[in-house]
Amino acid sequence: MQGRQYGIGALDRSNLLSYDRRVGSSQSQSTPIAATGAAIILFPVRAGARPRLHLELLRFHSVALDREVQGLIRQDFRTAGEWARHAATPIVRTDCIVDLLIAGTSGRPAVTTEEARRQAVTVGLCDELQLALSEIAKSLVRLGDLAAGPEERDSVLDRLAFDMVLYQRVFGLLFELAEL
After folding, report:
1. Mean pLDDT for the chain?
2. Looking at residue 11, what is its pLDDT?
3. Long-range CB contacts (< 8 A, 24+ apart) of 75-80?
């Protein structure tokens, strides 16, 4: 099995996607497994499977973040504690997306000039997404601040809506680039 690349993914009865880091742990890479009873069967995947899965994870978390933030924007909680409690999940999701962006930009070196150009554009878009996510997280944290009054929260919610539009626009560009 040496020389073959294994991607992320697994099939078993309890979880459609699970990670087994014991196999190939020297390279700290996940190995797909198909589990049937006690048997574990390794299966190779194409080289493009890992980036596609990575993009799908980004898309999943991006859609969830948008849904959570849009739901939060429509709320009118009375206390900072309520705002903080409802903003906690999107704050954690922004961290998750940033981690995925960082992991996605640390790939293999470009071989051709076209690959180098695409990587440079991708890194630039990821940097813009990280900046937008940082602003989104700051706004979410500010919603739960005890010192913030209702007027300030309204201003923060307007800013949050603007930052989400910017984030979605840049994210769309990243996906268009990935599909080329």
Report:
1. 77
2. 35
3. 80/143, 80/144, 80/145, 80/146, 80/148
pTM for the model stands at 0.70
In terms of Cβ atoms closer than 10 Å to its own Cβ (0-12, 13-18, 19+), residue 22 is exposed
CATH 1.20.1420 placement within the chain: 49-179
Which residues on neighbouring strands pair with residue 35, listed in sequence order? Answer: 40
- Contacts of residue 132, defined as CB under 8 A and 6 or more positions apart, other chains included, come to 163, 166, 167, 170
Alpha carbon separation from 5 to 1, 9, 45, 147, 179 (Å, rounded): 9, 13, 7, 53, 22
Cα 75 to its chain centre, rounded Å, is 25
Return the CATH number of the domain spanning residue range 49-179. Answer: 1.20.1420
Under 8 Å between Cβ of 120 and 110:
no
Predicted confidence (pLDDT) per residue in 76-93, tens digit:
888 899 999 999 999 999
Phi first, then psi, for residue 145 (nearest 5°) are -75, 130
